Amino acid sequence: MEEGVRRWLVNISKWCPSPQDFSSALSLFPPSQRSSILRFIKSEDRKRALVSRLLQYALLHQVLGIPYEQISIKRTLEGKPYLECDKDVPEFPNFNFNVSHHGDYVAIASEPLCLVGLDMVSCTIPWKETVTEFIQNFSSYFSRLEWDFIIGAGNEEQMLVEFYRYWCLKEAYVKAIGSGLASGLDRVEFHHTGWTNINVKIDGTFSPLWKFWLLDLGEKHYISIARGHPRSATESYKNTMKRVEFSKDEYFAGLHLPDVSFVLQTAEQLISILQDAKRA
């Protein structure tokens, strides 16, 4: 199953395509994907959306060996992306993936059995608000314990970083279960030792069925990964899965797979992968 654990990352600030290069990359995708990219007004948002699709299609092709023309990515009612595919891959009994972008980076993570949630944050200073005013807008999503750690972190910069770390983990959880933004953030409370050995309480009870990681990418970018049980997913997301129930041994084999480091890819590398796939 370990081959199904992938972590890819693209620094989009390093990719400055000409209009022709952008159009060429866009043409790799079916019309429905093109329109979802072009609906964005700002060029940076279009670039993030395009790189997100490049990551999804390239990873699915490389890991699962699906011919390019058979890759079909859909979304649940809540907006969770999933692979619509009849191909059965026994070593990956519940293959799923998640994407995230913020600031300079776009990333993707996949898991062969567990739910995977991925979130990325760039600790940007609020505009027209103090840090205290900004984070106060989100206070209802944190437990008293979490909130005390945030407001007691030190100066405003340290408070902002602490806020984003907790927020990043909470988003990874809700993205893993497919519930959509903000829904369920207040159900989870995170405990950690120096942001390692991260444990979670769900509805007040520690859960041994989840694992979390929080990574510092540098330049005030953080990325979090969640692994959890498929039965925790929303109903609409469960309906997209090949399997939801696993024996205890099966599930814990997936939960305790080694995590892997993020592999830095370039947009050019991903485009090359897809161009080769289309010609195959």
TrEMBL record:
<dbReference type="GO" id="GO:0000287">
    <property type="term" value="F:magnesium ion binding"/>
</dbReference>
<feature type="domain" description="4'-phosphopantetheinyl transferase">
    <location>
        <begin position="116"/>
        <end position="225"/>
    </location>
</feature>
<dbReference type="InterPro" id="IPR050559">
    <property type="entry name" value="P-Pant_transferase_sf"/>
</dbReference>
<dbReference type="InterPro" id="IPR037143">
    <property type="entry name" value="4-PPantetheinyl_Trfase_dom_sf"/>
</dbReference>
<dbReference type="Pfam" id="PF22624">
    <property type="entry name" value="AASDHPPT_N"/>
</dbReference>
<keyword id="KW-0808">Transferase</keyword>
<dbReference type="GO" id="GO:0005829">
    <property type="term" value="C:cytosol"/>
</dbReference>
<dbReference type="GO" id="GO:0008897">
    <property type="term" value="F:holo-[acyl-carrier-protein] synthase activity"/>
</dbReference>
<feature type="domain" description="4'-phosphopantetheinyl transferase N-terminal">
    <location>
        <begin position="13"/>
        <end position="112"/>
    </location>
</feature>
<protein>
    <recommendedName>
        <fullName>holo-[acyl-carrier-protein] synthase</fullName>
        <ecNumber>2.7.8.7</ecNumber>
    </recommendedName>
</protein>
<dbReference type="InterPro" id="IPR055066">
    <property type="entry name" value="AASDHPPT_N"/>
</dbReference>
<dbReference type="GO" id="GO:0019878">
    <property type="term" value="P:lysine biosynthetic process via aminoadipic acid"/>
</dbReference>
<dbReference type="Pfam" id="PF01648">
    <property type="entry name" value="ACPS"/>
</dbReference>
<dbReference type="InterPro" id="IPR008278">
    <property type="entry name" value="4-PPantetheinyl_Trfase_dom"/>
</dbReference>
